[in-house]
Amino acid sequence: MENHEQTRTALVTGASAGLGAEFATQLAERGHNLVLVARSADRLQRHAEQLRAAHGIRVEVIVQDLTAPDATARISADLAAAGLTVDVLVNNAGFGTAGRFEEIPDGRDQEQLMVNVVALVGLTRALVPGMLARGHGSVINVASTAGFQPSPYFATYSAGKTFVLNFSLALRSEYRGRGVRVLALCPGPTQTSFFDTVGERAALGGKMMAAHAVVRAALVALDRDRAYVVPGLGNSLNAHLTPRRPRRLVTAIAKLVTRSVLDTPAPAEPNQPQAA
Ligand SMILES: NC(=O)C1=CN([C@@H]2O[C@H](COP(=O)(O)OP(=O)(O)OC[C@H]3O[C@@H](n4cnc5c(N)ncnc54)[C@H](OP(=O)(O)O)[C@@H]3O)[C@@H](O)[C@H]2O)C=CC1
Ligand SMILES: CC(=O)[C@H](N)C(=O)O
């Protein structure tokens, strides 16, 4: 990462677990001050204390449910009250919904889209103008390999990740030459709490990557000002060599893989804040 960013502030959503906690750790190792956002207050506070002690950086915690329609406004107010400007935004918070569309509990997909899409757009809209005014900044949006094609039984999740990927690519184009980098991170299956939340969905198979390797790949890609990155050779080959047309065939092939989700149980209490 460029030197001028090393003492700047990064805001990471979903920093209480998985990829977000790892983003916080690796950005702290790079000398960034941090703002950690999620619902699980105890986990955030514990991680913040560890990072302050290990790196001597400033770490603030904002406990916020990103399904709330006013989530972005509340976070912006907290940042202003703390006198913080954000130079690196990591829109990472997210969860999955899986199964037959009509069987997913009513409102659940909407909550998922509030976190995975609406809050991501809202925070980007809130924080990018400051980056543009200062002439520098970075946005990492966490998409997924699920965003490269329609995925039956992950219909809204995969469509949301396609949004995140294309939104990021479009913004990157708008901000070229204006000092703001935008990167879409497209991980394949990764060892985090994600599959506890969505149910026993690891049944889709494939080798899981470690969260630290995924985040390292993202930060290297940001250093290189890449548009998007698919960590892991197998994931990258799948994402890039799978034909995109005809779309009906692509969807049918995806369904062969994703239909195994129907054989696995749904979680009892989906997407609650993480236990301390
Ligand atoms: N793991 C994987 O295989 C893959 C994951 N991804 C994406 O990576 C991102 C991170 O997921 P991952 O680390 O794997 O999963 P985890 O379940 O480990 O972490 C999810 C994070 O999102 C936060 N979060 C969930 N719901 C909300 C909410 N309503 N409000 C605020 N924060 C919330 C959680 O915090 P809390 O519960 O405290 O609110 C937690 O910090 C997601 O966008 C996911 O779609 C993409 C591809 C593959
Ligand atoms: C959960 C994900 O988004 C991942 N890309 C997967 O296909 O398992």
UniProtKB/TrEMBL annotation:
SUPFAM superfamilies for the chain = NAD(P)-binding Rossmann-fold domains (SSF51735)
Its domain of life?
Bacteria
What residue ranges carry the coiled-coil annotation? none
Q: Establish whether keyword Oxidoreductase is in the entry.
A: yes
Q: Which PROSITE patterns match?
A: ADH_SHORT
Gene3D superfamilies reported in the protein's UniProt record = NAD(P)-binding Rossmann-like Domain (3.40.50.720)
Question: EC number(s) for this protein?
Answer: 1.1.1.298, 1.1.1.381
Record keywords: Oxidoreductase
Record's InterPro entries? NAD(P)-bd_dom_sf (IPR036291), Sc_DH/Rdtase_CS (IPR020904), SDR_fam (IPR002347)
What this protein catalyses is: 3-hydroxypropanoate + NADP(+) = 3-oxopropanoate + NADPH + H(+); L-allo-threonine + NADP(+) = aminoacetone + CO2 + NADPH
Q: Name one GO molecular function term.
A: 3-hydroxypropionate dehydrogenase (NADP+) activity
Name of the top EC class for this enzyme: oxidoreductase
Q: Which family does the UniProt entry place this protein in?
A: Belongs to the short-chain dehydrogenases/reductases (SDR) family.
Q: What does this chain do? A: NADP-dependent dehydrogenase with broad substrate specificity acting on 3-hydroxy acids. Catalyzes the NADP-dependent oxidation of L-allo-threonine to L-2-amino-3-keto-butyrate, which is spontaneously decarboxylated into aminoacetone. Also acts on D-threonine, L-serine, D-serine, D-3-hydroxyisobutyrate, L-3-hydroxyisobutyrate, D-glycerate and L-glycerate. Able to catalyze the reduction of the malonic semialdehyde to 3-hydroxypropionic acid.
Task: Please report the name of this protein according to its UniProt entry.
Answer: NADP-dependent 3-hydroxy acid dehydrogenase YdfG
The opening ranks of the lineage are: Bacteria, Bacillati, Actinomycetota, Actinomycetes, Micromonosporales
